[in-house]
Write a structure and sequence with these properties.
This protein is of the alpha/beta class and 219 residues long. The protein has a single domain (10-106, 115-218), classed as CoaB-like (Rossmann fold, 3-Layer(aba) Sandwich), CATH 3.40.50. 26% of the residues lie in helices and 26% in strands. The protein has five helices and 14 strands. The strands form four sheets. An eight-stranded mixed sheet has the order 5-4-1-6-9-10-12-13, with helices on both faces. Strands 2-3 form a two-stranded antiparallel sheet. Strand 9, helix 4 (151-161) and strand 10 (166-171) form a beta-alpha-beta unit. Helix 1 (35-46) crosses helix 5 (202-218). The longest helix is centred in the last third of the chain and has 17 residues, at 202-218. It is globular, with a radius of gyration of 18 Å. Bound molecules: ligand PMT. Residues 14, 16, 32-36, 75, 94-98, 100, 125, 127-129, 143-146, 158, 170, 178-180 line the site of ligand PMT. The site of ligand PMT has 27 residues, from helix 1, helix 3 and strand 9.
């Protein structure tokens, strides 16, 4: 791949976790740091793309001139921001760890400690990536799958159900893969292929993902 191989392309990327408020002081979240998504954003920008990066709460930073960062908190906020930019995107990559459920009601005041057990009713969040699949026109659409068992089968299921062009699988059963750390180990799955990559830094993983996408687009 040449240096500026994504010049003229708009790449939309989701990154990080989402936080779903329970009350003014508490939330439901997950261990995503945003590192994977920010690494993809940096690499796409280095290749000349115009990058729209929509991130949940993360301490990752970027001041790359080709990256416009929008910071959101909840899945619903991420959904709204994504669909402000999706239509114009040539490539969309969903690396965010979006909460599948959110508290049905957000308590207005801090919930007091009283009973021995507390029940919080959760309701399903919108599936951002699935909606992107439904609204796909020209976009090359890439999802992630974070699995702990039946990895390939589950990832393939998401590829089909969400109308994706490819999915990046990472498994929490592989040491050094997934959340937080600066490394990842992935398989890239398309309708007809499974390609396995060794454990690498997230910076290198981002290069593999974008090179694979470029090859698919040029096919
Ligand atoms: O941020 P890091 O610490 O670097 O960690 C990186 C990562 C492990 C978070 C990342 O590599 C990763 O796997 N991201 C996807 C995590 C995830 O939520 O996977 P999933 O299998 O639950 O979701 C499948 C796909 O649907 C994902 O592309 C997800 O972004 C998307 N999704 C899921 C639910 C939802 N409501 N909306 C979505 O868009």
């Amino acid at each position: 791949n040449s240096d500026k191989s994504l010049t003229g392309k708009t790449v939309l990327i989701t990154a990080g976790p989402t936080y779903e408020a329970i009350d003014p002081v508490r939330f439901i979240g997950n261990h995503s740091s945003g590192k994977m998504g920010f690494s993809i954003a940096e690499e796409a920008a280095n290749r000349g793309a115009n990058v729209i990066l929509i991130s949940g709460p993360s301490s990752e930073l970027s001041n790359h001139q080709n990256i416009e960062i929008f910071r959101v908190t909840s899945a619903k906020e991420m959904f709204t921001k994504v669909f402000e930019y999706y239509e114009n995107a040539d490539i969309a990559i969903a690396s965010a760890a979006v909460a599948d459920y959110a508290p049905k009601e957000i308590a207005q005041e801090k919930i007091k400690k009283s009973e021995d057990s507390l029940t919080i009713k959760l309701v399903k969040n919108p599936d951002i990536l699935k909606t992107m699949g439904e609204r796909k026109t020209k976009q090359f659409l890439v999802g992630f799958a974070l699995e702990t068992q039946n990895e390939e089968e589950n990832a393939k299921g998401k590829l089909q159900k969400k109308n994706l062009d490819m999915i990046v699988l990472n498994s929490l059963r592989d040491e050094g893969a997934g959340f937080k750390g600066s490394t990842n180990k992935i398989k890239i799955i398309t309708e007809s292929t499974v390609t396995e990559f060794p454990l690498k830094s997230k910076t290198e993983v981002a290069k593999d993902i974008l090179t694979f996408i470029e090859e698919q687009i040029l096919k």
